[in-house]
Write a structure and sequence with these properties.
The structure holds two protein chains of two kinds.
Chain A lengths: L8 H9 L5 H19 L2 E4 L1 H16 L10 E5 L26 H8 L3 E6 L33 H8 L6 E5 L5 H7 L2 E4 L19 E6 L2 H11 L29 E5 L9 H16 L3 E5 L7 H16 L18 H12 L2 H14 L5 H22 L4 E5 L15 H6 L5 H6 L3 E9 L2 E8 L5 H14 L12
Parallel strand pairs in A: 2-3, 7-8, 7-9
Antiparallel strand pairs in A: 1-3, 4-6, 5-6, 5-10, 9-11, 10-11
Chain B lengths: L4 H10 L9 H15 L35 H5 L5 E2 L2 E2 L7
Antiparallel strand pairs in B: 1-2
Helix pairs in contact in B: 1-2
Classes of the chains: A alpha/beta, B mainly alpha.
Chain lengths: 487, 96
């Protein structure tokens, strides 16, 4: 018999229904793995062992009574950006290092209602600002494929936990590639849904016109299961879209013959490492064998996506993070002399270097006299980029390209140069700016490091994306590989 | 785009962030680089382009009736406050 952590989320859900093992056994198994491996990986900030075992007992009762949907009793990890009632919720920051959330995020609440058990809260870049999980107040996360490498970010703890089989799935959030890029760098299936598809209530805000919640899983099938439980209209999020949630799992097996794939010309640029490019091209050839047609597509404004993002996202972050004032919750400095001293020192000491850099960038581009030159200009270029995608989807069903220019890079390699770090998200930011859903799936290895194939779809085409990803995963086994030492 | 120490001190004050003497030159350098980097946007022809504030074309921010929906959870929320007294948030004296 294979070990419990060798199974996908869908297999574990089926095993629970068939009573081959209990939720308590499953949760105990993963808690033991976390205890053994978390000291070296630093994937979790908080492990909620007691709560998890209590929830597993309740799930076993529901299973015995034949109650509930397909996810009853399966354990997952939540990125520590999701507020969890009664549990420390830090967002990877000293600012919230003492914050016990008084309520549940909608994502947490919906999954709990579906019977999903929370193992703990995953490490992340501070306030989701980073591409390597090195900006966390709780220290960097190691990539299970090579402990000298970053796992990607900002959902780096979620990615490392799932890749090392410490949790069979995890939630993440994506503002400029924070699900897709770590999924690529750790060999997982990452799904960033359409802007507005999943409620952001209780998900700590970074850049409100970009942020969206999603999943890190082994397979597209697992992502379909989780998204089905997470998605849907929520009155408490003013950007939540009131459109029906389809049966994502039902669409998985549709044949791919006749699929029109746009190959993103701008993504195969000189920044893309040749070994990664080769693997992505092989994946495209695999789709051709499955009956798809490849069409080269050019999105001429796409090369401007990184500079556009680094105006829009910091501007919105400077506004969103003004709520951290040392008054109502979060960190407060010692012995403030007066109110201004309390604000500036609480924020100066509570935020890390990258968060402060982005708040100041945003403050500058929004300040009097500069708004039109920076923020308004960036919003106009954002429209050009989004229009490029609209034109492309008039010709093709999905777009494909690499997720990241290189496999996982060394811890410490890019921390001193923010621009180099920012350019790491060059292929993922476009989908965020246009609000589009996207998936990254593993498509091979360079040495021992995984490489991701990115698939972008039109708004609300998650079912199509997961169908396209699943078709590839039925023919390949990259997504089944387990890092050495974590078998 | 090159910022001075004075510029960065001014931005930090606007953003209500204390920045140490040691951090200051690092931010002068990196913020200048970031602003120079985003200047490539100036090369894009956006003469007749509407700025995009929301990624979904036909979506507008919903409005709802102005009625109380939330229950009072002040006590629970105040457990996270650095200093409270008699249900009030305490801050340094503002008015002499």
């Amino acid at each position: 018999m294979t070990e419990l952590h060798h199974h996908t989320l869908a297999e574990l859900a089926a095993g629970l229904r068939a009573r081959r093992f209990s939720s308590v056994e499953l949760v105990t198994h993963f808690l033991a793995r976390i205890e053994r491996s978390n000291p070296e990986l630093n994937a979790f900030i908080t492990v909620t062992a007691e709560e998890a075992l209590r929830a597993a007992e309740a799930a076993d009762k529901r299973l015995a009574a034949g109650e509930g949907g397909p996810l009853v009793g399966v354990p997952i990890a939540h990125k520590d950006i999701f507020c969890t009632d009664g549990v420390l919720t830090t967002c990877g920051s000293r600012m919230l290092s003492n914050f016990v959330s008084p309520y549940d995020a909608t994502v947490v609440e919906r999954l709990a209602r579906a019977g999903v058990v929370t193992l703990g809260k995953a490490n992340m870049d501070e306030f989701a600002m980073g591409s390597s999980n090195e900006t966390s107040w709780y220290g960097p996360v190691k990539n299970p494929w090579d402990p000298k490498k970053v796992p990607g970010g900002s959902s780096g703890g979620s990615a490392a936990a799932v890749a090392a089989r410490l949790a069979p799935a995890a939630t993440g959030t994506d503002t400029g590639g924070s699900i897709l890029q770590p999924a690529a760098l750790t060999g997982l299936t990452g799904l960033k849904p359409t802007y507005g598809r999943v409620s952001r209530y209780g998900m700590i805000a970074f850049a409100s016109s970009l942020d969206q919640a999603g999943t890190l899983t082994y397979t597209a099938e697992d992502a379909a299961l989780l998204l089905g439980a997470m998605a849907g209209f929520d009155e408490r999020d003013s950007t939540s879209v009131d459109t029906p949630v389809p049966d994502y799992a039902a669409a998985l097996d549709q044949p791919l013959a006749g699929l029109k794939i746009g190959v993103l010309k701008e993504f195969f640029d000189k920044g893309l490492e040749e070994s990664s490019a080769t693997l992505v091209r092989e994946a495209l050839a695999q789709y051709e064998r499955l009956g798809a047609t490849l069409i080269e597509v050019s999105l001429p404004s796409l090369p401007l996506s990184v500079p556009t993002y680094y105006v829009v996202a910091p501007a919105e972050c400077s506004s969103n993070l003004s709520r951290f004032d040392g008054v109502r919750f979060g960190y407060r400095c010692e012995n403030p002399a007066d109110l201004l001293d309390m604000y500036t020192r609480s924020r100066g000491e509570g935020f890390g270097a990258e968060v402060k850099r982005r708040i100041m960038t945003g403050t500058y581009v929004l300040s009097a006299g500069y708004y039109d030159a920076y923020y308004l200009k960036a919003q106009k270029v954002r429209r050009l980029i989004a229009d490029d995608f609209v034109r492309a989807f008039a010709r093709v069903d999905v777009l494909m390209g690499p997720t990241s220019p290189t496999p996982a890079f060394d811890i410490g390699a890019k921390v001193d140069d923010p621009i180099t770090m920012y350019l790491n998200d060059i292929y993922t930011i476009g989908a965020n700016l246009a609000g589009l859903p996207a998936v990254s799936i593993p498509c091979g290895f360079v040495g021992q490091l995984p490489v991701g194939l990115q698939i972008i779809g039109p708004h609300f085409a998650e079912a199509k994306l997961l169908n396209v990803a699943h078709g590839y995963q039925r023919e390949t086994d990259w997504h089944k590989r387990i890092p050495r030492g974590y078998e | 785009m090159s910022l001075t120490r004075q510029d960065v001190e001014n931005i930090a004050l606007l953003a209500r962030l204390s920045i140490s003497e040691a951090e200051l030159p690092v931010y002068v350098d990196s913020l200048s680089k970031i602003l120079s980097f985003v200047e490539q946007l100036n090369g894009a022809d956006t003469g007749h382009v509407e700025p995009m504030a929301h990624p979904l074309a036909d979506q507008v921010q919903r409005l709802r009736d102005d009625v109380v929906l939330e229950e009072d959870r002040r006590e629970k929320y105040q457990r996270n406050a650095p200093r409270v007294e008699a249900g009030l948030y305490l801050v340094p004296k503002v008015i002499e």
